[in-house]
């Protein structure tokens, strides 16, 4: 019983105690600290936003008004409530901005896939296109983010069932991707 209690204690996320984004996992005689998925997703969003703000992204101008996102637990709960359905489709009606991604690899990189759409986007007022994940990530008026990575034994993607998939859902507030608006202000103008 003592060993079980010790292991459970080691599995308590440290963010509940110390505000950290690290979790201690119990491996006999060697607890390992790993970054939680939600913290990773927030950090990655902010690193990409910083690159855009600094003008370090090909074909994208430096941003004048692009700050970091803050974690929002209400958005994370909304993301979780949508993700547990294991249905790869956008929530309608949309209260928040939303990005979706799935992979059969637990280490699939949602933020990288979304951000890579910058190569499809010609900066200017928004039109429809295959870059809306990217523009939501860098929408300047968006200030809060909540995400979840959900394991789905059976994920629905249209008429297809994908076994053993990981679904990432991020919710953004205020939402972005408004037609005829730019995602951020160009620092050079």
UniProtKB/TrEMBL annotation:
<feature type="signal peptide">
    <location>
        <begin position="1"/>
        <end position="19"/>
    </location>
</feature>
<protein>
    <recommendedName>
        <fullName>SCP domain-containing protein</fullName>
    </recommendedName>
</protein>
<feature type="domain" description="SCP">
    <location>
        <begin position="35"/>
        <end position="180"/>
    </location>
</feature>
<dbReference type="InterPro" id="IPR035940">
    <property type="entry name" value="CAP_sf"/>
</dbReference>
<dbReference type="InterPro" id="IPR001283">
    <property type="entry name" value="CRISP-related"/>
</dbReference>
<dbReference type="InterPro" id="IPR014044">
    <property type="entry name" value="CAP_dom"/>
</dbReference>
<dbReference type="Pfam" id="PF00188">
    <property type="entry name" value="CAP"/>
</dbReference>
<keyword id="KW-0732">Signal</keyword>
